[in-house]
Design brief:
The complex is a heterodimer of chains A (309) and B (115). With 309 residues, chain A is of the alpha/beta class. Chain A is 24% helix and 21% strand. In chain A, the strands form two sheets. In chain A, strands 1, 2, 3, 4, 5, 12 and 13 form a seven-stranded mixed sheet that branches. A six-stranded mixed sheet of chain A has the order 6-7-8-9-11-10, with no helix packed on it. In chain A, α6 links the parallel β7 and β8. Chain A is globular. Chain B is mainly beta. Helix content of chain B is 15%, strand content 38%. Classes of the chains: A alpha/beta (309), B mainly beta (115).
């Protein structure tokens, strides 16, 4: 629980972080998130907002040519998290913790991620529920969650919804929330003030990035309908192993990098499979994200940080 | 995995023996590569064993409710299923459901007909 508030070298540390790279840092500022440059991000950190961190797609167990050492790059990401000058309030993990849902893979992930000494709020990716009963994931992360693992919580006045759009998928379709979860979302949001900032996180993007590769959620429009009346909605996803952002009205969509391996931009390769890049390029394409929320500001500040700039 | 495949293959052989179908040269393969099933559509005689092989660096599954639900196939893993009942089996990858395929199983004729 060390705080770095009096560290005079904070700016310098952040510059190092740019070089070293890790994830997405999120700053929630009054409602809508913004992606800031790294300098802005450094300023945001100095202004002491409520900050949380997003990591995604760790794929413990992945050992293919695109990154034979997914464990090492996750360790590196967590080192970056530990080095952050302002300790984030908590972490969210947007799924694909493991590659094949094996107990040893979940154990490895836990061993490494727990080193950050932060609370972590998880949602599963399709790789985490390969055992169809979702037993292993739910044993570890499902306590107090509903259905295949969705839940909500509040932190610093922000309402968070962790959703599952990787269970019970139908042939020919994309990600899916399902009627039961949609009803729960409607219910969960009922009676909340429209001025309360909302953060929704789920594995597969909740907007249609590229249907040809299944990069979207077929029934997300209904969920977004329930969110329409809110002044600030931020949607954080993983799955596509690259940073993408889109703003639609009061809703900002954002996807995070993987800590394991990059995937190609939509339509630029025959398929969405792991993208092999030269070894010295790999860590530029992996990372974490940090988000900061500041009262009386319009947007969440999102800083994506690669493992290596 | 290899053991399991061997057992599946054995089970397929026994099934073929029980149904009176001869060991067949018609057993057939589907490759999974670049997030597609190749060939995506296949017509086989009843009694045929179809073997899927995952050539991607990402796991895939074969799902055709309620008959087929494979485990996740890691790279180079195989899954076999013997189709004994004529019909059209649409299947997909349970992890990447935009990946779809179809196996059409026709009744075997003459000596090959399963009893």
């Amino acid at each position: 629980m060390t705080t770095h508030d009096h560290n005079p070298n904070r700016r310098k540390v952040l510059e190092c972080m740019t070089w070293a790279g890790t994830g997405v840092l999120w700053t929630v500022a009054g409602g809508v998130p913004t992606s800031l440059g790294i300098i802005d991000g450094a300023l945001a950190a100095e202004q002491k907002g409520f900050t949380f961190l997003q990591i995604s797609d760790s794929h413990m167990g992945f050992d293919k040519p695109a990154n034979p050492n997914a464990k090492g790059t996750l360790e590196e990401a967590i080192e970056r998290v530990k080095a952050l000058p302002a300790k984030p309030a908590f972490m969210i993990h947007t799924g694909d913790i493991t590659h094949l849902s094996k107990p040893s893979e979940f154990d490895d992930a836990e061993k490494i991620i727990s080193q950050a000494k932060l609370d972590v709020h998880y949602v599963p990716g399709e790789h985490d529920i390969v055992d169809l009963e979702i037993k292993l994931y739910k044993e570890r992360y499902g306590r107090g969650t509903k259905g295949p693992g969705y839940y909500s919580f509040d932190a610093n006045g922000v309402h968070f919804l962790g959703l599952v759009n990787v269970a019970n998928l139908k042939g020919g379709g994309m990600g899916s929330l399902g009627d039961e979860q949609l009803e729960w979302i409607e219910d969960d949001l009922k009676g909340r003030s429209a001025s309360q900032p909302i953060v929704v996180f789920a594995h597969i993007p909740l907007w249609t990035v590229y249907p040809e590769w299944g990069w979207g959620t077929e029934d997300s429009a209904k969920a977004l309908g329930y969110l329409k009346r809110f002044g600030s909605v931020t949607v954080l996803n993983g799955h596509i192993h690259q940073v993408m952002q889109k703003v639609e009205g009061n809703v900002t969509f954002h996807t995070a990098r993987s800590t394991a391996f990059p995937q190609p931009a939509p339509g630029t390769a025959p398929s969405a499979g792991p993208m092999k890049v030269p070894a010295d390029q790999l860590e530029k394409m992996l990372g974490i994200a940090s988000v900061t929320f500041k009262q009386n500001e319009q947007r969440l500040a999102i800083v994506d940080t690669p493992l290596k700039a | 995995m290899t053991g399991r495949i061997a057992r599946l293959a054995l089970a397929a052989t026994i099934a073929a023996a029980l149904t009176g179908a001869p060991a067949r040269a018609t057993d057939t393969a589907v490759k999974i590569s670049n997030f597609t099933f190749n060939p995506p559509q296949l017509t086989v005689k009843a009694g045929t064993t179809v073997t899927w092989t995952n050539e991607d660096d990402i796991p895939h599954t074969i799902v055709s409710p309620p008959a087929i639900r494979s485990k996740a196939l890691d790279s180079d893993d195989k899954f076999s299923f013997t189709f004994t009942t004529p019909g059209t089996y649409k299947y997909f990858c349970g992890l990447h459901p935009h990946m779809t395929g179809t196996i059409v199983v026709e009744a075997a004729t003459g000596d090959n007909a399963p009893r």
